[in-house]
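Dear Dr. H.,

I hope your travels went smoothly. While you were away I took the liberty of generating a structure for the chain from your last submission, since the lab meeting agenda had it listed for discussion. I wanted you to have the full record in hand beforehand rather than looking at slides cold. The sequence, exactly as received, is reproduced here:
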Amino acid sequence: MKKETLQSCCSDTSGFDLIVSALLFLFILLANCIELLTRPVGFITIMLGLICFKTYGRYYGSLINAKGILSTSWMVSIGLSLIRIHPDQIEWSLMTILCISVALPLFMFGYNTYFHFQQFHRRKYTTGSYSEIDSDAFRFVLLIWCLLVASGLGADCIYSKSLPVFGESQSAYMSFGMPYVHYLTVSCCFLPSLYFCYLKSAQLKISNDKSLFAFVSFCSIVPLLIVSRQLMLLELILFTMTYFIFGGKENLITLGKICALILGVLVLWTFLSSFRNQSTAYLASVFNLPLTTSKNEMSFWQLYLYISFNFDNFNYLISNLNQFSFGVNTAFPLLVLTASKSMVPSDLLSTSGLMLLPTFNTYPFITPAYRDFGLLGVVLYSFFIGYFSCCIEMKARTLNNPFIHLGYYLVLYSLAISFFVSEFAQPVFWIYVLLLFAADLLVRSVYRRNG
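The corresponding predicted structure, in token form, is as follows:
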């Protein structure tokens, strides 16, 4: 790790933040004004994103940091979208250009603002064990969590009368799960990472606690059983970050290892997709592609569209949105968790008529904010996400609490897929945060009681 303080790192990147933001706006504008420049500018934008990844990694002494991950994810996906190889991809409206362009600099501004309001002088990036907490208390909480996941999966199976991996319906994975209880099932994604933290904190090996290993192993395959590609991706990324950052091996992270991880994710993604019972002909029809598209070509198209087409969906939404929802979409998690969703007119939350392709319902992370307050919403939302990301990053980097670390990795994952969805506007994200917070409190409570 580098020895600079977090405060000085922030100061060093401020100028770079502005340059990157200005270049991004210029590239998007050029690509949408001069047709001949569209694809060249798209490739240049991708290269700029990769440069950002290396540059922020150098500033912060680690390739894993909030600014680097968001800027790279945002610009690479924008660059791919600007290449426009799908027949339904068209030039973006001026409002689309403004919203997509201001999101990154406002995130950076929010991130830097938290720095300036906090006094983190001379605090360095640190990693370590949960030494202040008794390992027995930690183990007890992990067992409870495993039981909750297993019970949730059982209730989901009874409620849905099937398990997606064995289902034959194309929508089996989408309709699977019991309301609210399913949140416990999908929280399985944290268990491999927390188990690793437990072993490291207690200085144990797997052979020292085979029963807990068996419980965690079963819970870790839940994403495969319910055919959830995104949950599988989250679990893998959380564990990888835990291994390197909490495990004190962050200096071993290289671009080569990151590329290997991405390749592994793609292989697993393709493997899980085969269990969704979606024929090539079906995918060709919903993606508006020729029916002669081969299976291999369809795998390419799925990957390309999942990364790039979200911005085109956003552009279509802007052109067809008739009214703002004034806070309803960004407050969606609160509406769901308080069971007050039914009190809100359904058309304010519905995406009906707002999708460029009938079944392609994914948008970049700024979409809920735009639906609520337009460009102003995008500005405020991006600032808040940047502020929040800096807050959790600083806490994780200066504390040795595994639950805070997992919260930090969850935020990084959310930033990495910001081109695809706003995790911050999903109920499950805040359920995850609450579960991590509750688990931390329970560990400390059991420890005090035993002590």
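Two observations you may find useful: Residues 367-398 form the longest helix (32 residues). The CA atoms of residues 272 and 344 lie 36 Å apart.

With kind regards,
E. W.
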